[in-house]
Amino acid sequence: MNPVNVGLLGLGTVGGGTVNVLQRNAAEITRRAGRGIRVTHAAARNLAAPRICSTDGIRLTTDPFEVVRDPDVQIVAELIGGYEPARELVLEAIAHGKHVVTANKALIALHGNEIFAAAREQGVVVAFEAAVAGGIPIIKALREGLAANQIDWVAGIINGTGNFILTEMRDKGRDFADVLAEAQELGYAEADPTFDVEGIDAAHKLTILASIAFGIPLQFDRAYTEGITRITRDDVAYAEELGYRIKHLGVARRNGAGIELRVHPTLIPERRLLANVDGVMNAVLVMADAVGPTLYYGAGAGAEPTASSVVADLVEVTRALTSDPENRVPHLAFQPDAMADLPILPMEAIQSAYYLRLLAKDRPGTLADVTRILAERGISIEAILQKEPAESATDVPVIILTHCVREGEMDSAIASIEALDSIIAPVNRIRVETLDAR
């Protein structure tokens, strides 16, 4: 049987890694797919740029539409990232009857509903394993491996840059800005790190995971997103003292009222497996009714880890080339006409425990005022740390760990606490997740 021809859009880190994996493991891939898979066409902005792969036998162009429209190309692998022109290119490929593999989480999170509808009309596959958590096969696990289960919740460390920063702050007592600069030097963070440190990248990925887990449309615009820029090394140290570690977590949870969809810094008990995922590594914990908790851990980025998922999708699409479109695994796990109309809950409706860090004037009655405000809203306290003021300082750091409460009540309490004349700075709030079966 003739090999399948693949056209690459993008020959950077992931594109080059994909070529290398396909070439190095060609015999093994052919055994798995039933036929060879070869890159015959590729588009890149600069054809003279140095590559991490050999381009021998690959027709190169600076025009990605030339690849998309070439009749010899059977599968288009979109590896350029971003919203546009990626969306236009993918829709053009689908219109030409080509299957698509993409590593573009932003594209799927924002435009996946439109793209999958177009793919169904044309009877083609859009595969996107590499869009979430790099080399970790979490999409296939949720979509197929856990198909017998009702998913209760998904929680993940799904951005390696943020995890690297928080790990360095904990292990070496460093400041956020200092570690971010190093992450940029190491290539873990972009020159503009906003997507990573403000949680946008993680929210893209969480949107996809939630859709597959719960059978709901992709709704990135409803995801609550909070970054790690306000986390200090003191917060990291206080969390450790209380038996927790701070992670930038994505959480999607089904409850009786709807779906929680949120990305934010989170205190996790130090004994939990997720609390011990360090550096640039990713991990996703899934709680399902039949199997219980399952953990998926590995490299969330990089040339060959991500290429591993891209090539796995190429193998899957190759196997599906001759299959009946009606009998393929649905893009978002559930049949398109069986998607649930569950609402995404506003943050004020979710329930969580909280870590609060206050800076208070060192005078009698301050702590009593704070605890009174919390008590009036039914917020019970699990632990309090009152630190010694720095030498010659007149303000005292106070750390409070609360029990579970509705976020709206906590918002009201924080507003009242900040209105006290004895409270010097805004209250720093971090949510707490025990990651149990609640």
In short, what is this structure?
The chain has helices at 13-24, 26-33, 64-69, 86-95, 105-122, 138-145, 160-172, 176-185, 194-197, 200-214, 233-241, 303-320, 366-376, 407-418, and strands spanning 4-9, 37-43, 59-61, 75-78, 99-102, 126-127, 151-157, 224-225, 244-255, 258-269, 281-288, 292-299, 351-361, 381-386, 395-402, 405-406, 428-432. With 438 residues, the chain is an alpha/beta fold.
Give the topology:
Blueprint: E1 4-9, H1 13-24, H2 26-33, E2 37-43, E3 59-61, H3 64-69, E4 75-78, H4 86-95, E5 99-102, H5 105-122, E6 126-127, H6 138-145, E7 151-157, H7 160-172, H8 176-185, H9 194-197, H10 200-214, E8 224-225, H11 233-241, E9 244-255, E10 258-269, E11 281-288, E12 292-299, H12 303-320, E13 351-361, H13 366-376, E14 381-386, E15 395-402, E16 405-406, H14 407-418, E17 428-432
Parallel strand pairs: 1-2, 1-4, 2-3, 4-5, 5-6, 8-10, 10-17
Antiparallel strand pairs: 7-9, 7-11, 9-10, 11-12, 13-15, 13-16, 13-17, 14-15
Helix pairs in contact: 1-12, 4-5, 5-10, 7-8, 13-14
The major beta sheet can be summarized as: 11 strands, mixed
CATH class of the largest domain: Alpha Beta
Give the uncertain stretches in residue-range form.
none
The radius of gyration computed from the alpha-carbon positions, rounded to a whole number of angstroms, is 24 Å
Name the CATH superfamily classification of the largest domain.
NAD(P)-binding Rossmann-like Domain
Number of helices: 14
- Record field, number of beta strands: 17
CATH architecture of the largest domain: 3-Layer(aba) Sandwich
Sheet-strand content, in percent, reads 15-25%
Overall tally of domains:
3
Report how far apart the termini are: 52 Å
Based on helices, strands and strand pairing, what is the structural class?
A: alpha/beta
If you average the pLDDT, what whole number results? 94
Helix content, binned percent: 25-40%
